[in-house]
Amino acid sequence: MGGACSRKPERDSEDSPCRGLSRRFCKSGSLKWWTSSFAYPSVDFHLRKGDCPSLLELCIKKINEQFLFQQDIDRYNSFSMLPRDISQQIFNKLVCSQRLTSVSLEAFRDCALQDLDLGEYAGVNDSWMDVISSQGSSLLSVDLSGSDVTDFGLSYLKYCENLLSLNLNYCDQISDHGLECISGLSNLTSLSLRRNDSISAQGMSILSGLVNLVKLDLERCPGIHGGLVHIQGLTKLQSLNIKWCNCITDSDMKPLSELVCLESLEISCSKVTNFGISFLKGLQKLSLLNLEGCLVTAACLDSLADLPLLSNLNLNRCNITDDGCEKFSRLENLKVLNLGFNDITDACLAHLKAVLTKLESLNLDSCRIGDEGLINLAGHRQLKCLVLSDTEVGDTGLHHLSEFKNLRSLEICGGGLTDAGVKNIRALSCLMCLNLSQNCNLTDKSLESISGLTRLISLNVSNSRITNSGLQHLRTLKNLRSLTLESCKVTAYDIKKLRSTHLPNLVSFRPE
Questions:
Q1: How far apart are CA 404 and CA 368, in angstroms?
Q2: Distance CA 259, CA 249 (A)
Q3: How many angstroms separate the CA atoms of 471 and 28, rounded?
Q4: What are the pLDDT digits (tens) for 8-37?
């Protein structure tokens, strides 16, 4: 379909943005469900009228004006005589502007920098590691994601004994030997090793000494089956990501029962079954569990009911059917529930009606949910995000949504909506994101119906019958930042004209 809805990226895709000059841009990490990255943005110099800048701000501003945006940065041999705060700002500016090179890097030797965010930065290799390690005990965080650093280069970090955070995502040349090089960094609280084919179960034994780890990311590491036994002693661990490791089986789940502080666990797209989930019953602090694509059924809810703090559950693309869905009623603390791409019907929603009153986000993408099923959601006043794309919901069903006064995000792509159904959305005054793409019968009248949703930030009505004439109804949406009208009878010229006269905050639009 032209102007396809962006809600359904390929399952193997990763949607985190990266720096434009990186030759490894395709490796950027994903944030589909509960991921995070290491980011230390530089502080820009902005002052409100009447404010007095600090001496440090004045100094940084002067340095920026003097040479950061000139071509003679390589003439400076060393910044080590400057206060660390200033050196750090200079380093951040050079990285942000893509002007840090192996030559200019040398000027930062022995500057006692704390944070080196070089993730996806082109040209980083072992030759950079000597200067990086020269920061010594001051260095607290390093991101080398997507670099050409090898096991040898990683050995330099042994001198940085106070390192707290290390990100080695997509570092293809780091193996078990590289892990040995960081085994002495006992102060590490965060370690990320995404998409590494060389790390084995035996190599994971080295991680057992990192007793202060709070966060461990092993996403897409296909060789770690049997290795989780080595981390069962990491009792401070709060977050573990082993999703997209299709080698993981039920036997790998048993060691996790010892991780008593675990709050977040992602094991999607593995071979784990209901039996494996039973080992998680003792994780009393677990609040987030991602089981997307696992071989589980509704029977796993018996084990999950023993997790008192479970509030975020992803069962997308599992084997959930109506059979056993009554067990959802035992998960009273759920706030986020993803049931997309499961063979469930309105009968399942009946079990959510009276009990899951704390729900804030519900995903029913591509389920066999119809108009009558939405009656069961009418009492969920806390609901802020609802996905009903590719379901059987039509105009009648939207009427049941009129009492969701706190709803912030609504997605109904690929359905059979008409202008009459969209009228029921007018009362959802808190909506900020609205996606109605792939509803080919919608016309300009639908834009008129939503013209009163003045809090809208994002609007997508692609592949519909919207025309240039209908754009006039969007003049009231002063907060709109993203507008997508692909495969409509709308031109980029008219959208630009609308932006210049009525939508000053619009920064992204299609067609463009």
A1: 22
A2: 17
A3: 36
A4: 444 444 433 333 333 332 322 222 223 232
